[in-house]
Design goal:
Number of strands: 18
CATH class of the largest domain: Alpha Beta
Helix content: 25-40%
Structural class: alpha/beta
CATH superfamily of the largest domain: Mur-like, catalytic domain
């Protein structure tokens, strides 16, 4: 799509956005992507659809894993196409527009999308493929109850029968979203978070979990059984598997069982877009850092690994990823708009297994966290400033688990003070 085909208003919106982004970067106020997208939408509210017209599009949504899955998928698509994608993880309207503004000559669009924004983004972009990761409790003060989100997503995909869904059959809520869709490819991710999957959103019947299987104890109104579908593709400790005996080893650089599930869905989405399974697997294996997540920073004799967690399921996975042999564990919790102001979810996270490790509670809401750790019988110290908390740790390996704004602030501070392992490797390679 060439610039003249956009029309005068959209060309003006693009020019305003690029000027705003250049100004923000020049004055070191930030990347400028969000302000650029916001201004572009002010000038032309229809610019998202104009920028995306005529190009195949893949969307990724879910409570956890959007950024990692999107990076893996974009990397795989990049082996065959020029790809426009929201690399910084800005997954609402302004961030999506900003990603589309970068290069109108890109052949394929690959975007992570906030669950609340999926309906109108689908209506605007008409995606070729939609990846449905998982659905669990998030920021109740912003998102609301997950049954409401499930219904919104179900309506959105129902309105787009032409879209191919890559759906996680181990997640009961996402299974409900895709259950009636005519073009669904089921993937088993090996997910084990079931705290939010106790009753069916279809008829409120109890859900029974038995090994890899799950099912509702009562049939649906039309007589069908609501049960875990049989997957076409699946992942396990041995590798990635699919039809006709397909088995490929999968050795990821990013940690955790959840990321193997993310990789599986990214690989299947790439296959649906014409990428060979072997190429898609190889691409997912190259991803090692997603906007600083999982990165290790070196500073003053300390090896600091950063993990991001944003909701109960994400926190549980991050705690499972944490190195139990590390010398210290810093947990940082803020309560800003990007985190959710209501932190009652802290009581749904099992902190009880860290009694053998030096734990420091930090962040703006460190006191809330300290109360939770006290009730979990976890010895800890309280240091509100996250950077100061790290400074109190002895030299050695330090695991840092932080929610969104705490992670972002700490990553930027540490990056300005030291260097990441990835940067050091690039310097050596150069």
């Amino acid at each position: 799509m060439t610039t003249p085909s956009l029309g005068l208003r959209a060309r003006l919106a693009r020019a305003v956005a690029k000027t705003a982004r250049w100004t923000s970067r020049t004055l070191r106020l930030g990347d400028g992507g969000m302000i650029g997208g916001l201004l572009a939408l002010k000038v032309d509210p229809q610019i998202m659809g104009k920028l995306s017209a005529g190009r195949p599009c893949v969307l990724v949504t879910g409570t956890n894993g959007k950024s990692t899955t999107t990076r893996m998928l974009a990397t795989a698509l990049g082996t065959k196409y020029r790809v426009a994608w929201n690399e910084g993880g800005d997954n609402m309207d302004a961030g999506i527009v900003s990603a589309l503004l970068d290069d109108s000559e890109d052949e394929v669009i690959c975007l992570e999308v906030d669950e609340m924004h999926v309906p109108h983004v689908m209506d605007t972009l008409h995606p070729t493929v939609m990846v449905l990761l998982n659905l669990s409790r998030d920021q109740l003060d912003r998102v609301g109850e997950i049954n409401t989100i499930e219904k919104r997503l179900r309506t959105a995909v129902t309105n787009h029968p032409e879209t191919t869904l890559i759906a996680n059959c181990d997640d009961m809520m996402m299974t409900s979203v895709a259950y009636d869709h005519p073009r669904t490819i089921w993937v088993s991710t090996g997910g084990n978070w079931s705290n939010d999957a106790t009753t069916s959103p279809r008829n409120n019947a109890a859900i029974v979990h038995s090994g890899n299987d799950w099912y509702a104890v009562e049939k649906l109104a039309d007589g069908r059984e609501f049960r875990r579908p049989s997957p076409t593709y699946w992942v396990d400790d041995a590798g990635f598997h699919g039809p006709d005996g397909l088995t490929l080893p999968l050795e990821l650089r990013v940690p955790g069982k959840a990321n193997r599930g993310n990789a599986a869905q990214a690989i299947v989405a790439a296959i649906a877009m014409g990428i060979s399974p072997h190429t898609a697997v190889t691409a997912s294996e190259k991803v090692e850092d997603v906007s600083g997540r999982y990165s290790t920073m070196q500073w003053n004799g300390r090896n600091i690994r950063l993990l991001l967690a944003k909701n109960p399921a994400g926190w549980q996975e991050a705690l499972n990823m944490a190195n139990r042999d590390a010398d210290s564990l810093v947990i940082a919790v803020n309560g800003q708009q990007g985190d959710g102001i209501d932190l009652s979810w802290l009581w749904d996270v099992l902190f009880e297994n860290f009694s053998e490790q030096e734990v420091i509670a930090s962040g703006e809401r460190a006191t809330d966290l300290a109360v939770r750790l006290t009730y979990a019988d976890i010895p800890h110290t309280l240091v509100h400033d996250s950077l100061e908390a790290i400074k109190t740790c002895p030299a050695g390996d330090i695991e840092v688990i932080a929610n969104y704004t705490a992670f972002r602030e700490l990553f930027l501070k540490l990056r300005s003070m030291g260097s990441s392992t990835a940067e050091k490797q690039e310097a050596q390679d150069g």
